[in-house]
TrEMBL record:
The keyword Zinc does not apply. Belongs to the lyase 1 family. Argininosuccinate lyase subfamily. It is an enzyme of class 4 (lyase). This is Argininosuccinate lyase. Residues 367-433 form the Argininosuccinate lyase C-terminal domain. The gene is argH. InterPro entries: Arg_succ_lyase_C (IPR029419), Argininosuccinate_lyase (IPR009049), Fumarase/histidase_N (IPR024083), Fumarate_lyase_CS (IPR020557), Fumarate_lyase_fam (IPR000362), Fumarate_lyase_N (IPR022761), L-Aspartase-like (IPR008948). It comes from Campylobacter aviculae. One of its GO terms (biological process) is L-arginine biosynthetic process via ornithine. Gene3D superfamilies: Fumarase/aspartase (C-terminal domain), Fumarase/aspartase (Central domain), Fumarase/aspartase (N-terminal domain).
């Protein structure tokens, strides 16, 4: 089979095995839109500097628009003889408008800068989509936070009961993680905002081109100042892969907790029927498959990051064919992030919070012990270490009696340092609201935290 693109140089035709191995069309056809708008921007730039005539430009644009239409109508023939989406579109353009004009499009451009540009445009678009989905997720979390400021639940450290908190305070933790994820994506967007187009193979071109113009048409803030860097850089893809990996670290923690909290051991919440699955054998089962799948998909997004880091490691400048391996993993991570964030948000919107079970759980594990110690420090001027000892002793006595300290009616019976009035120390809501430090679990602090998040969302 004859590969027309480089037949000038070669005597022998490509082996079919090579064609198949070398082709990336199946993967990079995903970039068809970016390739077409990239080519239109390049053609406009060529026309502005006299390389193309106006009617040649018009023909090229018409041809490219027709190709876009053909692809979207499913009429375009993807043939791996054309190797990748860039060559496939260029070949089809020459079929439509003739190679006299079609053949001019690749002036002052190489596939190296073309592919870097298309890929970067895709990465920018994906950053924006994921930011939008995270924003929706934060909104859902805020709506729970507004409703559950006095829904008491235990917090955990080492997965052991720690102190009472509200469900609002708990769930807001995730909103702040997703807020940082958005900020990281915004940083990625800013770093990716420099166009590689016009870098050509690696050293620029002898034509008097106007790279700033094509950059501007494509919505880039500016151009990459060094052509060699322009074609060698894949940091923008690594940034997105890393950012998605961190998002999945966060969603995997949230999903893990949804799985634990919806189990009969906890019973803190119920995942709705519409987002639960049954078992083929056990009629009673309700399985949290959505959460498990999102937790499991963390594996592939970490893998995709490590894969591209490894591809890029120690790669000599400038373009090397290794870099063709950059796309599959990124496309996969972006799709995984999109699908997972959409379903996670839809699932979260329908969870049911079981207040009573959360409260019952607070009555195990002596959650109020720290409040008692803090009281002794604050009101009785007892050093914290001593207070810790006194309260530890009360906990030990309660355990011997088989009760939780929240069930004690008269603390004075346990240690005379406490008088009758101190009974209010053993109230969960009082414990929450006694917190004075910034960022604490108190109702007032939770309200402030919601404001911070809302202001952030408004700024987007
Ligand atoms: N399909 C290639 C890729 O995705 C396009 C770049 C090819 N450049 C080259 N010099 N062979 O990376």
């Amino acid at each position: 089979m004859k590969n027309e693109m480089w037949s000038g140089r070669f005597n022998e035709l490509s082996d079919e095995l090579l064609q198949e191995f070398n082709a990336s069309l199946d993967t990079d056809k995903n970039l068809y839109k970016e390739d077409i708008i990239g080519s239109i921007a390049h053609a406009r730039m060529l026309e502005s500097c006299g390389v193309l005539k106006k009617e040649e430009l018009d023909n090229i644009i018409k041809g490219l628009n027709q190709i876009q239409n053909e692809i979207e109508q499913g009429e375009f023939i993807f043939d791996i003889k054309n190797e990748d989406i860039h060559m496939a579109i260029e070949k089809r353009l020459s079929d439509i408008i003739g190679s006299e004009i079609g053949g001019k499009l690749h002036t002052a451009r190489s596939r190296n800068d073309q592919v870097a540009t298309d890929f970067k445009l895709f990465v920018k678009k994906s950053n924006i989509e994921i930011i939008f989905l995270l924003k929706e997720l934060i909104k859902t979390i805020i709506s729970y936070a507004k409703k559950h400021k006095t829904t008491i639940m235990p917090s955990f450290t080492h997965l052991q009961h720690a102190q009472p908190i509200s469900f609002s305070f708990y769930i807001l933790t995730y909103a702040f993680m997703f807020m940082r994820d958005i900020k990281r994506l915004q940083n990625g967007l800013e770093l990716a905002d420099y166009s590689p187009l016009g870098s050509c193979a690696c050293a620029g071109t002898s034509y008097q081109t106007n790279r700033k113009l094509s950059a501007q048409i494509l919505g880039f803030k500016d151009i990459m100042p060094n052509a060699m860097d322009g074609v060698s850089d894949r940091d923008f893809a690594l940034d997105l892969l890393y950012n998605i990996a961190v998002i999945f670290t966060h969603t995997s923690r949230l999903c893990e907790e949804m799985i634990l909290f919806s189990s009969s051991e906890y019973g803190f919440l119920t995942i709705s029927d519409s987002f639960s699955t049954g078992s083929s054998i056990m009629p009673q089962k309700r399985n949290p498959d959505v959460c498990e799948l999102i937790r499991g998909k963390t594996g592939r997004v970490y893998g995709n990051l490590i894969s591209l880091l490894t591809i890029m490691k120690a790669l000599p400048l400038a373009y090397n064919k290794d870099m063709q391996e950059d796309k599959e993993g990124l496309f996969d991570s972006v799709k995984t992030a999109r699908d997972s964030l959409v379903i996670l948000n839809a699932m979260l919107k329908k969870i049911q919070i079981n207040k009573e079970n959360m409260l019952q759980s607070c009555k195990k594990g002596h959650l109020l012990a720290t409040d008692l110690a803090d009281y002794l420090v604050r009101e009785k001027n007892i050093p914290f270490r001593k207070a810790h000892f006194i309260v530890g002793n009360i906990v030990a006595q309660a355990e011997r009696k088989g009760i939780d300290i929240s069930e004690i009616k008269d603390l004075g019976e346990f240690d005379p340092v406490f008088d009758k009035k101190t009974i209010e120390l053993l109230d969960f809501e009082n414990s929450l609201n006694s917190k004075k430090s910034e960022g604490s679990s108190s109702k007032a602090s939770v309200e402030k935290q919601i404001k911070i998040l809302e202001r952030f969302l408004d700024s987007l």
